[in-house]
Amino acid sequence: VVYREVVGNDSITVRLYGYLLFSGLDKMSTNAPLSLVVGPQRWTAGEPPTDQLFPLESPGYLEQPSSRYPFRIITRIYPADYFDNIWRFSRFSLIAWTLLSLVAGVWVFRKSGRMHSPEQELRRALEHREFIPYIQSVVSGEDKRMTGCEVLMRWQHPRQGIISPDRFIPTAEHSSLIIPMTRVLMEQVREQFSPLVHQLPEGFHFGFNISAAHCKDFSLVEDCRVFIDTFRDNPITLVLELTERELLVADDKTDQLIAELHALGVLIAIDDFGTGNSSLRYLQNFSIDILKIDKSFVSMIGTDALSAHIVDNIIDLANRLDLKLVAEGVETEVQSTYLRTRNVTFLQGYLYGKPMPVSEFLSQLPA
Ligand code: C2E
Ligand code: CA
Ligand code: CA
After folding, report:
1. 178-193 and 118-127 are packed helices; what angle lies between their axes, rounded to 10 degrees?
2. Which residues have C-beta within 8 Å of that of residue 20, sequence separation ≥ 6?
3. Distance CA 275, CA 246 (A)
4. Adjacent-strand bridge partners of 251
5. Eight-state DSSP code of residue 276
6. Could you tell me the pTM of the whole model?
7. How far is residue 215's CA from residue 255's CA, in Å, rounded to a whole number?
8. Interior CA angle at 364 toward 133 and 134, to 5°?
9. Which helix (H) or strand (E) element contains residue 12?
């Protein structure tokens, strides 16, 4: 290689012995064959010089031009070479990072609780007794004194905190886990209320929400019997609320179960009355004691003439059939006055108390 640089009127010429360049290229060509390009010529160690330059856009083409002299080093690296090189030079890191990401992935998966199906997650929560009762008071329509309560399930999740029932009850109902879950709820209410049985108002009633699947399971009768027995020193009334949202089909088994419950003194309520399409069929097929007017109707009182008529009609129906009435979702004095002037038996809603943990509810009882 001859290098010539002009300085003023003179010039300097340097001649480099080609062997030095070849051996340098050769030494550095361990990963990919390097070529030296000067002008139109390409030299690769061990090959004769050629003027065949591969096109710039050919895949894997890399070049490094010199910033001071008119030459560049070029090479081509193929995808297979990448892996080859990684394997040859970074084998340890490759294995270590793969393992590390796997471990990290599994850890995150487990931590985010996605390792289990929703049903398995409910099962785990049931074993750990994470389903707890919240209590909302029910007051008398006559004098607004507390006469009972509704037990509402909450999931006390170790990481997510308190989860509302709308998010897990449907899965629990599909998987029939709702039966043991309700049983655990009843047990907890028994255990926590029984030491204070004498502080409860006379004839206090406990309302539990019961799913359709549960109405075919005779263990419910036994659970109710034990519940009622716990409070025999100050007898309470147990109310089972059946929601209209799920279809409860009348058959011999359900009839017999409801008859046995009635024999124990348990009252049956229809929850969310008027929202489903089987309200009247329910009244016809099951012996019902209580209707719960859904909060969607109560919230319309004073605003919408049509819904107010629905409330009036439900009240009228209940009176004719000699059923007790509970209005749920009472939030304002206007609603309360409207319902009380129409002799609605019981009122329930934020106006009289939100659902709260058992300990908080018990601490409010008169000593
Ligand atoms: P629900 O049986 O109709 O219960 C009444 C719901 O209305 C409760 O919601 C209660 O917190 C809410 N609520 C009460 N007063 C007011 C009010 O003044 N304003 C408003 N906006 N809401 C009020 P929650 O506790 O979230 O329960 C939702 C539903 O989940 C319940 O509706 C019931 O269908 C179901 N559920 C709750 N606990 C259980 C259970 O132990 N078993 C079954 N099967 N279902 C349950
Ligand atoms: Ca209810
Ligand atoms: Ca309701």
Report:
1. 30
2. none
3. 11
4. none
5. S
6. 0.74
7. 9
8. 10
9. strand 10-15
Q: Which of the listed residues 209, 242, 245 should we mutate to test ligand 1's pocket, taking the one with most ligand atoms within 8 A of CB?
A: 209
The two beta strands, 61-65 and 10-15, are: unpaired
Terminal C-alpha separation, the chain: 107
For the Cβ of 57 lying below 6 angstroms from any atom of ligand 1, the answer is: no
Classify residue 232 as exposed, middle or buried by CB count within 10 Å of its CB (0-12, 13-18, 19+).
Answer: exposed
Task: Say how far apart CA 175 and CA 213 lie, in whole Å.
Answer: 10
- Cα separation values, 345 from 140, 161, 238, 360, Å: 6, 35, 16, 25
Domains identified in the chain and CATH numbers? 2-111 (no CATH), 118-363 (3.20.20.450)
As separate numbers, helices (DSSP H) first and strands (DSSP E) second, the chain gives: 13, 16
DSSP run (H or E) holding 6: strand 2-7
Residue nearest atom 22 of ligand 1, based on CA coordinates: 329
Kindly state if the Cβ of 77 falls inside 6 Å of ligand 1.
no
Give CA–CA dist 261/237, Å, rounded: 12
The SS3 call for residue 109 is helix
Which of 157, 159, 181 lies closest to 171 in space, CA to CA? 181
Q: pLDDT, tens digit, for every residue of 48-100?
A: 888 887 666 777 888 899 998 888 999 888 878 878 888 888 899 999 999 99
- Number of CB atoms found within 10 A of residue 269's CB: 25
Token readout for 250 is 């009348």
The set of residues, in sequence order, having a beta carbon less than 8 Å from that of 64 and lying 6+ positions away, is 72, 73, 74
* CA gap 300, 306 in Å, rounded: 9
297 CA → ligand 1 middle, Å: 15
Residue 45, both tokens: 């160690």
Token readout for 184 is 């655990």
For 312-365, write each residue's pLDDT tens digit: 999 999 999 999 999 999 999 999 999 999 999 999 999 999 999 999 999 999
Backbone φ, ψ for residue 280 (5° rounding)? -75, -35
